[in-house]
Amino acid sequence: MKFNPTLLAIAAATLLAGCGDAPQAPAEKRIVILGFDGMDPAIAQRFMDEGKLPNFSKLANEGHFQPLGTSNPPQSPVAWSDFAIGKHAGEHGIYDFLRRDPETYAPDFSISQNIAPETMELFGYHIPVGDGQVLNRRQGKPFWMTAEESGNRASVLRVPVTYPPDNIHRMLSGMGVPDLLGTQGTYTLYTTQPVRGSGSSSSTRIERVRPRRGGIIETTLVGPQHPLDPEAGTMDVPMEIRPLEGSEGGASITLGETSVDIEPGGWSDWVKVDFDFLGPLMGIRGMVRLHLVAGYPRIRLYVSPIHIDPMQPAVLMSSPPEYVQQLAERIGNFHTIGMPEETWSLNEEHISDQAYLDVIKTILAEREAMWYDTLDQNDSELVIGVFVQTDRVAHMFYRGFDPLHPLYPETDETARGAIEWIYKEADRVLGETLDRLGPDDQLMVISDHGFSPFRKAVNLNRWLVDNGYLVLKDGKDTSGVIFSDVDWSQSTAYALGLNGLFINRAGRESQGIVTEQQAAEIKAALMRDLPTAVDPETGVPLIGEMFDGDVLYPGNANGDAPDLVVGYEPGYRASWQTTLGAAPTALVELNDKKWSGDHCIAPSKVPGVLFTNFELEAGEIDALENIASYVLERL
User: Fold this and answer.
1) pLDDT tens across 214-242, in order?
2) Cα 518 to Cα 34, 258, 523, 607, distances in angstroms
3) Cα torsion angle, 416, 420, 422, 428, sign
4) What is the pTM of this model?
5) Options 3.40.50.1820, 3.40.720.10, 2.60.120.10, 3.40.109.10; which CATH number does 36-94+138-177+315-451+606-634 get?
6) Cα 111 to the chain's mean position, in Å?
7) Parallel, antiparallel, or unpaired for β 442-446 and 31-36?
8) DSSP annotation of 328
9) How far is the C-alpha of 164 from the C-alpha of 112, rounded, in Å?
10) Which residues, in sequence order, are CB contacts of 260 under 8 Å at separation 6+?
11) Which of 323, 436, 513, 519 has its CA 20 to 30 A from that of 551?
């Protein structure tokens, strides 16, 4: 039996803290908050009017239903941080999925930060002499911790931006938990033929493989870096693919010590993978699922991101630490990455619509099991759980819901029915939840934002180039990601992330040139001129609202706040190139990706939802950030 040094440290800490399995007194009454990420009030109302959401209709008729103000910008990490802290981003410091490094102008993950431990060299290895750290960049105290301090137990499952976990009665971290490579979800596609997509995405690895005699393919699954010897590279595990006897195109796959048989279009169960170092006694265990996209003779095999094994967790993802293992013992293995519904494989058409929906169904079932397990234990006065599948399906299948989307004509019934299907699934989960409530339990059903079509992408840095704010190097008409061809000595403003605009300030950016007085003038000019930008093809305005970061985010926690926030009109959104600091040729491009719905636009256009099983006065809760104070008063 292998032991994991990280797991050993966690176990030691657990023993010192005491046992987490002691019987708990039942909660006399609970406040239960059920989140459906991205649920839109207009879409929900439409389906309720059509009689398709009976449980939501019941809540609306017997309790309360209203649109709920979202965060600014209306992005999930920002919104769920508003929810957790009960304050705006200027207080909690999460302004976007991405933050920019003012030293390099490069994008970075905004939610968490890894700090490596100090090491000493011994026998050629770099041995840790202290504990590394994972820091949640979100600042402030989440309201469930305040609730615990006042004597109320809290169970919080899969709320985004909760990694690492808070020290409360029960928590399973959500968005932010990495895969075993340390990324937010890197998958691998093994193929004998060229495929669409270059594999250049940070979440994608494409491996061209060649069969030898008998159709046998020998390759490897790339694992994490060697934890003690950086020069040793990655710890890889051998993989063999061979034709499945008696099958039309099926494959028999051996990964490490496990063999599975898969038919074309099929999925494997979880396959445990050991990445050994210092011989067979020490290793890190992960797990993957395999999907045979296309069978023999033209193999295309999808291997999921390498999830951390919940039975041998290599990082701390739950409170108490052993909770993740106890949960896996009760409900079986489950996806542990904070964002397991990785979207890029569908966006690049490396897997099919149906295969992606199969993943959604599996993860949804896992989340249900966790949620019902917690409700049935009835040992917490505050219970919070978030289902993100409503958001992911809307992102990837709005093309089948919006007749004006460029991809709508080529969508089939699967794509056109996907959003209705996931809303019906949410209604079913709601019904199961209602059945598990006690007579005095108060239920709130919320979403962090709504949804809008994403028909066209806006290259905001192109507008900045054309209007003299972002200056390219001599002879360059475009710039690649991370502003590769930008002349910072002449540039005054730049766009990075989904909604942020930054002034190239002297003393803040490493190559900043703009003084404080000039910054105010530039900001005023941008707020005046940028909303006049229109779609060259239709003349429709691209931007509905502009916000001054100094006004929007007083306090500027972390110092990461953008100088301006751009609120796009429905139908438009920042391009993928803009998020990474590129300036392509065109200002506006058709969105021909399957990621076809979005919400990173003007916040007034994409409110979330609030349903309750009790009556609320008008205006009592008008925004997501107001829920925390409301709940604490009633606890």
Assistant:
1) 999 999 999 988 877 777 788 899 999 99
2) 47, 63, 8, 35
3) negative
4) 0.92
5) 3.40.720.10
6) 10
7) parallel
8) H
9) 8
10) 252, 253, 268, 269, 271, 290
11) 513
